[in-house]
Amino acid sequence: MARTRRSAVQRYHDRVAGVYDHSYDDAFWQWHDALTWDYLKPHLPRDVSREVVDLGCGTGKWGLKLLQSGFRVTFVDISPQMVDQARRKVEETIGGARASFVQADLADLSSISAERFALAIAFGEPIGCTDSPAQALSQIRRILADDGILAATFDNRWAAIDFYLERGDPAELARFLRDGRTHWLTKETRERFPIVTYAPDELHALLEQAGLEILEMIGKTVLPMRQFRQLLTTAEDRRAWSRIEKTLARNPSALARAAHLQVACKRGGTVKRGSAGVA
C-alpha cells in the first residue's frame, strides 16, 4: 500500500512538472507568495554561508529565491521531473554553484547528512502528502542543525468542510472529521494521492512530539481571496488586502477560516512519546 501511495504522488508530479508553474501564475498567487515571503523573512539565517534546504521543492520557486538571497540551497523532491525542472531553472537564472539537488521522499532523507541545515522550508504542503507526516518530521528534525528552523505549510482540516458538504454525504464528512484524511483532487482517479489535514491543535501536538518547538502558527490565507481574484488586479489592491490579511493571520480565533496553516518551529531537545492525533 505504501508503495502505491508514493508512486501516485510521484506519478502526478512527474506528469505536471513541465506545466506546473503556469497553474500558479496569476494575481492571487502573486499576493499569496508575497505573504509567504514576508512571513519567512524573520526566520532566515543571519549568516548567508549557512545551508538551507527546500523540501518538496517542486520547480524550485522558493529555493531559487533563497539562492538569490545568497544562501547555499539543497533542492529535494520526490519527483525526479520536478528536480530536473528546479535544476534547469537554477542553471538558467543564476547558475548552480551554490545549489545541489536530491530526489527523495521526505519520509526517507537518509541520503542527507544529519544536523546540516540552518533552515528547512516545506511549502505547498509536502509533509501532509507523505505516507507518514510524523516520520517525515522526524527525518526533517534529523537534518536540522541544533539551532535550525523548519518553516512549513499544512492543509487546514476545517477549510475542507465545505467540500464534503457539497458532496452531500454526512457519513463521509463524519469520517473525515475523525481522521483528517482526504486526497488530492486530480481529474485522473489513478493519480489521486492521500493527504493528511490537521486542525491547529493537532498540528501543535504533531510538531511538539517530533521534537520541534513552535515559534508561530499563521493562517494562510484567512481571507478567501482565491475566490475573489478580481479584487487583486493591481499592486495597490494586493497591498491593501495584505494589510488586512496580516491583521488576521496570527489571530488564533481566525485560524479555522484559513485554507492552510504555516508554522515556524525550531529543533528542540526532546522527541516526545505518545499520540499526536492524526499522523
Question: Which features characterize this protein?
Answer:
single chain; 279 residues; alpha/beta; Rossmann fold; 7-stranded mixed beta sheet; two-stranded antiparallel sheet; 9 helices; 9 strands; 37% helix; disordered N terminus
Short structural description:
The protein contains nine helices and nine strands.
Percent helix? 25-40%
Question: What is the CATH superfamily classification?
Answer: Vaccinia Virus protein VP39
Poorly predicted spans: 1-6
Strand content: 15-25%
Class per helix and strand makeup: alpha/beta
H/I helix tally: 9
Question: How far apart lie the N and C ends?
Answer: 16 Å
Physical arrangement of strands within the biggest beta sheet:
3-2-1-4-5-9-8
> What quaternary form is this?
single chain
CATH domain fold name:
Rossmann fold
Total domain modules: 1
Residue-averaged pLDDT: 90
What's the main sheet like?
7 strands, mixed
Structure write-up:
Helices cover about 35% and strands about 20% of the residues. The protein starts with a helix and ends in a 12-residue tail after the last strand. It has about 280 residues and is an alpha/beta fold. It has helices at about 1-15, 25-40, 60-70, 80-95, 135-145, 160-165, 170-180, 200-210, 235-250, and strands at about 50-55, 70-75, 100-105, 115-120, 145-155, 180-185, 195, 210-220, 260-265. It has a single domain (about 1-265), classed as Rossmann fold.
